[in-house]
Write a structure and sequence with these properties.
This protein is α+β, with helices and mostly antiparallel strands and 138 residues long. The protein has 1 helix and 10 strands; from the N terminus they run αββββββββββ. The radius of gyration is 30 Å and the shape is globular.
């Protein structure tokens, strides 16, 4: 009986020691993530699919624009590249560029141009740089 009583006292002492040591252990603080709290410098929410359009001067969802596919040696590859239109201007959002590129055309039916970039309305759209086809789209 004494052995049993001594065993119970030791077991409860060990149990209490574990509980005290766990209480004194600093708990990890969880970083609270706010959904939609990822506003960019223009106030656009990337988590909701919005990107700043320099052409429209507002947050837009580029995937609602015209999708362009990367073109290489006659093969097309789907990429996340898009173009939006506003009047005689077009804004390119390319997977290879950090900033969008704004192209302009002189009149209806002409190509949109900016330096060595040229967007041609032909069987959908063809985007060239320095005369080389880089993207095609419908």
């Amino acid at each position: 009986m004494k052995k049993m009583f001594l065993f119970l006292i030791m077991a409860s002492a060990i149990s209490c020691a574990k509980k005290v040591s766990q209480e004194n252990t600093p708990k990890e603080t969880k970083k609270e993530t706010v959904v939609g709290g990822d506003l960019d410098s223009h106030g656009c929410k990337a988590s909701a699919g919005y990107t700043w359009s320099a052409l429209k001067k507002e947050c837009i969802r580029i995937f609602e624009g015209t999708k362009l596919s990367h073109y290489d040696d006659g093969k097309t590859y789907t990429t996340a590249s898009y173009v939006i239109f506003e009047g005689n201007k077009a804004e390119l959002f390319l997977d290879t560029q950090k900033e969008s590129i704004i192209l302009e055309r002189k009149s209806e039916g002409d190509s949109w141009v900016n330096g060595d970039w040229q967007l041609i309305p032909w069987k959908g759209y063809v985007l060239k740089k320095n005369g080389k086809i880089l993207y095609t789209g419908e």
